[in-house]
Amino acid sequence: MFCLLEGVGEIISVIVRSRNRGEVTIRAFNQAKQLLDDEIIHRAEVELVLPTENQVIASWEFIGKYSINSTDAVLLQCAFDAASELRTNGDNLVLVSSDQRPLNAARNAELFTFNPEIDNRAALDILIHSP
């Protein structure tokens, strides 16, 4: 499994905004941060990756095409590249996001998508184990 390093910052931003809006308790906030640390940042099975310069440049076309911000465009470019590579080995990529614009763009490119705000664990398991 891999996670775009910029994606970690996006996750942290969501957690902090939820705390700042009073949507979660301090305890829930701390638990979410700890889970992020344990399940993504410090998990040996998760490779934190950086986009290449070429991926950043290639991502710029997605900003206008899909009406998304630059971070989401880089995420999409990296997802498209990784999915292409994974498919040659018979594997698939699941793009995880709670933002509908990159999810819609990914679906248009026939990538598997998962929205943790509305999809459940069973749906994720199906995507992970799809041929």
Topology (elements, then pairings):
Elements lengths: L1 E3 H16 L5 H16 L5 E3 L3 H14 L3 H19 L5 E3 L3 H9 L3 E3 L6 H8 L3
Parallel strand pairs: 1-2, 3-4
**Which stretches of 5+ consecutive residues score pLDDT under 50?**
none
Q: Between the first and last Cα atoms, what is the distance in angstroms?
A: 16 Å
Quaternary? single chain
Q: State the domain count.
A: 2
Share of β-strand residues = 5-15%
Number of strands: 4
Derived from helix and strand composition plus strand pairing, the structural class reads: mainly alpha
Number of helices: 6
Give the CA-based shape. globular
Relative helix content: 55-70%
Architecture overview:
The chain has 131 residues and is mostly helical. The protein has six helices and four strands, in the order βααβααβαβα. The strands form two sheets. Strands 1-2 form a two-stranded parallel sheet. Strands 3-4 form a two-stranded parallel sheet. Helix 5 links the parallel strand 3 and strand 4. The chain is globular, with a radius of gyration of 15 Å.
At a glance:
The chain is mainly alpha-helical. The protein has helices at residues 5-20, 26-41, 53-66, 70-88, 100-108, 121-128, and strands at residues 2-4, 47-49, 94-96, 112-114.
